Amino acid sequence: MNHRILELYSGIGGMHCAWKHSCLPGSVVAAVDINTVANEVYRHNFPETNLMTRNIQSIKPEELKKLNVNTILMSPPCQPFSRNGNFLDKNDPRTISFIYLIDILSELDNVEYILMENVKGFECSAVRDLFINKLQECEFVYQEFLVCPSTVGVPNSRLRYYCLARRNSTWTFKRKDEIMNRLPKDFDEPFALSEIIEDSVPDKHLVPDKLLKRANIFDVCYKDSRRSCCFTKAYTHYVEGTGSVFTDASPDTVDKCYKQANTHEVGSTEFVVALKEVRLRFFTPKEVSLLMAFPKDYDFPKNISTKQCYRLLGNSVNVKVISELLKILVT
User: Fold this and answer.
1) What pTM value is reported for the model?
2) Structural domain count of the chain
3) Is residue 22 part of a domain?
4) Are 227 and 182 part of one and the same domain?
5) Is residue 153 located within the same domain as residue 204?
6) In a shared domain, residues 170 and 57
7) d(CA 95, CA 173)
8) Is residue 289 part of a domain?
9) Other residues' Cβ atoms within 10 Å of the Cβ of residue 237
């Protein structure tokens, strides 16, 4: 089957990259997002795609049907189901567009395949129940997953919820009623970070003194590390829970410097000076994109700032995980 794909909440095109990476037949014929900066990046990488800067709820079912798509890939806003969004669930205004899609799904009888990604926590939400009930009403067969990139050979933690749904009853995949935590195939262990580390990274990526004051809570990675923490849109702006930092120094050198630093008051000038030797730095946007499995030739327009790159990547998806899920969905 030659798939005609509609990419909703398209962001910087992570789903588009995943489809290309899967080598499945078909193409993204239209994409929709309201974020103008994300759309600029999307156009830069996929100039041939019909990209619409619109509120999704402004698109009528008839307009969607005219696109003649049979596959929808989407990553609705995750904030309503996260701590940062106060878990407001269906009471959060940011769910309006997704609830609209749920409401009109019964009218989109040309759609046979759906992949939806969201944050961990969505599986416990009222919106999830609305979505699953609608899938069942429209006679879709579905499977839910909670998968981390580290289980598919990528050295990054980014546990996310995924739902695969297809209306075609000939699905060879053996679904389960419970949420699956791994994909039904084996993958190599995550590669070493040395494979994605850039050469001659500018000093502007060094962790500034004001953040080095909290270096006791950093997650430090090395060239031979096979793991890294989830990168969020607040990476480089806040320290806690936003992503790992990197150093070319050896673990022994880092351990020695930390021991020296901890002989001083945490956050003091002496504490910061003791850690300067290891030159802790942030991962560059290119490195983060590679850890999220974007292709090596993917890039950002020159006018997009480093801060904007981090924010856009923090809101995006892991390409490798979705690519593998797509293979399950359509075969």
Assistant:
1) 0.95
2) 2
3) yes
4) no
5) no
6) yes
7) 30
8) no
9) 12
83: CB partners within 8 A, 6+ apart: none
How large is the angle between the packed helices 319-330 and 14-22, nearest 10 degrees?
60
Under a CB-based contact definition with an 8 Å cutoff, are residues 6 and 69 in contact?
A: yes
Q: Which residue has the tokens 């041939």?
A: 48
If asked whether residues 154 and 253 sit together in one domain, one would say no
Distance CA 131, CA 146 (A): 16
Contact 162, 325 (CB under 8 A): yes
Active site residues: 78
Check which CATH number belongs to the domain holding 237 and give it.
3.90.120.10
Structure tokens at 98: 């997704």
Indicate whether 147 and 205 sit together in one domain: no
Domain that holds residue 60: 3-188+317-330
Is residue 300 one of the residues assigned to a domain?
no
Amino acid found at 268: S
**Can you give the pLDDT of all 331 residues of the chain as single tens digits?**
889 999 999 999 999 999 999 999 999 999 999 999 999 999 999 999 999 999 999 999 999 999 999 999 999 988 777 766 556 777 777 889 999 999 999 999 999 999 999 999 999 998 999 999 999 999 999 999 999 999 999 999 999 999 999 996 789 899 999 999 999 999 999 999 999 999 999 999 999 999 999 999 999 999 999 999 999 999 999 889 999 999 999 999 999 999 999 999 999 999 999 999 999 999 999 999 999 999 999 999 999 999 999 999 999 999 999 999 999 999 8
